[in-house]
Every structure is written in C-alpha cells, then in structure tokens.
C-alpha cells in the first residue's frame, strides 16, 4: 500500500524510501556511552585543566598500549600529527615525500606545511593502498620520507616499503588516520615505521568530540621532540628551542577518547562482521570492494565498492532512503591546489578509477541487522537494474 508520502511525490511504492539508513550515526554511539562520557567530561570541567594535563597523559598511555608502541603524543588533529611526524623525520623545504594520490588531502597538506613536495605512487587495484613496485623508481636525492596511507582501514603493504626505506636510509611515516586497531603481520598499524599518525575526527573508528590526533613511535628522542613541538617548542616554560606550534590536545578530547578506547575492540569486531556480511550478500554483484590482503587486518573504517555507474546508483539508493558517501572522488594530483605539480588525467589510472567509481555504503558499529538488510535489499535491487540497462545500451 502506498503511503501519503508516496502519493504526494507521485513515485511508485517500489521506489519509496523504506527504512531510512544513515551513512553514520554518532547519536547512537553517544547513547551507548552517555553516562561514562558525561562523567568523564564533568571531571575535566571540575579539574579546570583543559589543555594537555592528566587526562591527555592517561589517554596517551592507554593508546600506546593499545597499538603496541612505546610512546603516544596527543595533538589537535590528524593533520597536525602528520606535520610533526614529517618534521621529526627531517623533512623540510625543497625535500620530497613519496605518497599516494588516493587519500584525503590532509596527507599532502602535511607535506606542503613542511615545505616539501609530494611525489605520487599509484595504489594497487586490489587493496587500494600504495603499490610498492612503483616506489623505488621515484626515489631521488631529495626524497626524505615514504608516506603510505592505510586507506579505508586496511594497512598498506608495509613489508616491501620498509625494506625499500631501510635500503635507501629513508624513514617510513604511516598515515594511519583510518586504521585504529588495524594490523600488519601481527603488529599494530602505525607501529612499524618511524611514526604512525592517527586522526580522531568524530567519524573515525575512534573519534573525539571534535578535532584530535596522535603520533605513536618507539623512538624516545622523536617522542620528546614531538611533545615539545606541539607545545610551542618549549624545552621548559618560556624557553623555545626552535619553531614550534600550538598543536596541543584538549583535555576534554583526551577524556572522551579514553572512554571510547575501552570499547574500540568491540566496535571493530562489529565493523568486521558487518563488512563480512556485505561481502557475502553483495559478492555476486558487479561491484568491486577492496580485498582484505593476506597478513593484514582490515578494520573497515569505510566499506567502499566500485561501479562505473556510481552516481546513478547513489541517486537511486538515496531515493530508497539509503545514505551513501564518496571517498574520494577527486584524487589529490587532480586537485587545483596541486596543479603546480603538472599532473594530468591518466597519470595515476588506478587512483582515478577509484575516484570515478567509489561509493561508500553505510557501516557503523551500532548498525542494526534491520538497517543492513535494508541497504542490502536496496543495492541488490538497484545494481542489477542499472547493469541490465547498461548492457542493453551497449548492445
């Protein structure tokens, strides 16, 4: 039976929104931790220690233990984490950093903030992470770091990248902004290179109540310098030894992240179950998600699948009440901000295909079976319909 909404819109019931499914639901997450979270925030307010302080130190210790690193240095964003890590790796004006064009642009902002230039290696077409086969030919005397991105929650192929870096004396900095709790050959993402950089933007697998980030490292000297740089490069109060930054983590974020960190393992398992169900239910459709590579633990920050008619699929899913997103439709090398690098369409074909075809389906730990059933039903209705229409046109 058509609803009043159907009648007003003139659409057939088959096209009407069914169970509305948000792309992400932070309110559901908050409802599940409301009491603990509000208690933690009240404690910060009563302490009146709002920048750094014991709440941040407690979170840093807990997160270092969680990922398996000796040190964690909390900062005010994932972008700041990358910036400071590159400085500590010795990257400066005129240098080059090898990274990928299929990433959020913050990866390359950090390179630019350090005064260096990004040099791009394409991603491989299976995992959507840095293709190690392309890296070595890009190394020059100006190369000061290799910056792979653990895209969508899956670690890059760090083994060969670390070997290349070691052979050339070039540090590897991991962009683990989307990979909290991910793993590579049994080790935590972010702990294999000189530094691992995390974002705690609210929508991340471990999200703050605003902006926050962290750098993890096993190098004590690097950790000491990171702590100084984030706080105006003070070796002691009012003594500034080099150019520093105001990149401190707020105590409120430290307290909130500590509450959420205790639940991250269960949230990650929920993500992995949901992703596995998507893969099973949608595996026969002509959509291509990244495969979980052998030896890597994918934490499914995003469930992204490729299809040539992405925009049409997205439109039809929205009509059915399913929210989707794009990560990332314009690779960095084609962004206007980096036009000075001189790249053209076709330079990095895998990244460009992902940009044209990527579609992120709803996936969040609080997602119910009913919600996922609604997404699966909508996708299984829309994709074959579009594929049949495409085949007819091709004939």
TrEMBL record:
Enzyme Commission no: 2.6.1.90
Enzyme class: transferase
A GO term for molecular function: transaminase activity
Origin superkingdom: Bacteria
Keywords: Aminotransferase, Plasmid, Pyridoxal phosphate, Transferase
GO aspect biological process, one term: polysaccharide biosynthetic process
Catalytic residue positions: 204
Residue list for modification N6-(pyridoxal phosphate)lysine: 204
Keyword Cell membrane set for record: no
Recorded family membership: Belongs to the DegT/DnrJ/EryC1 family.
This protein's name: dTDP-3-amino-3,6-dideoxy-alpha-D-galactopyranose transaminase
Provenance organism: Tautonia plasticadhaerens
Lineage: Bacteria, Pseudomonadati, Planctomycetota, Planctomycetia, Isosphaerales
């Amino acid at each position: 039976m058509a609803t009043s909404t159907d009648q007003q819109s003139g659409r057939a019931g088959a096209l009407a929104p069914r169970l509305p499914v948000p792309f992400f639901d932070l309110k559901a997450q908050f409802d599940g931790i409301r009491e603990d979270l509000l208690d933690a925030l009240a404690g910060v307010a009563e302490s009146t220690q709002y920048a750094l302080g014991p709440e941040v130190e407690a979170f840093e210790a807990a997160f270092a233990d969680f990922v398996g690193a000796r040190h964690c240095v909390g900062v005010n964003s994932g972008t700041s984490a990358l910036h400071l890590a590159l400085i500590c790796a010795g990257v400066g004006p005129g240098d080059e950093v090898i990274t990928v064009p299929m990433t959020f642009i913050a990866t390359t902002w950090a390179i630019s903030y350090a005064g260096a230039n990004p040099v791009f290696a394409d991603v491989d077409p299976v995992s959507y992470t840095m293709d190690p086969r392309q890296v070595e030919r890009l190394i020059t005397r100006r190369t000061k770091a290799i910056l792979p991105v653990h895209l969508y929650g899956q670690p890059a192929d760090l083994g060969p990248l670390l070997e290349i870096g070691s052979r050339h004396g070039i540090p590897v900095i991991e962009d683990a902004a989307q990979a909290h709790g991910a793993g590579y050959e049994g080790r935590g993402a972010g702990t294999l290179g000189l530094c691992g950089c995390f974002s705690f933007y609210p929508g991340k697998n471990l999200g703050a109540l605003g902006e926050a980030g962290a750098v993890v490292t096993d190098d004590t000297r690097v950790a000491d310098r990171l702590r100084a740089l984030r706080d105006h490069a003070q070796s002691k109060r009012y003594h500034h030894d080099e150019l520093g930054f105001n990149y401190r983590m707020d105590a409120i974020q430290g307290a909130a992240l500590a509450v959420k960190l205790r639940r991250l393992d269960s949230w990650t398992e929920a993500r992995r179950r949901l992703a596995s169900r998507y893969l099973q239910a949608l595996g026969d459709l002509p959509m291509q998600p990244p495969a979980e590579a052998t030896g890597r633990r994918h934490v499914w920050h995003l469930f992204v699948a490729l299809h040539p008619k992405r925009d049409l699929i997205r439109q039809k899913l929205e009509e059915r009440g399913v929210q989707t997103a794009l990560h990332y439709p314009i690779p960095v090398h084609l962004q206007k901000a980096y036009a000075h690098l001189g790249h053209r369409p076709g330079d990095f074909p895998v990244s460009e295909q992902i940009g044209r075809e990527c579609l992120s389906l709803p996936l969040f730990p609080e997602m119910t079976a009913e919600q996922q059933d609604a997404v699966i039903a909508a996708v299984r209705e829309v994709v074959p319909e579009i594929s049949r229409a495409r085949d007819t046109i091709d004939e």
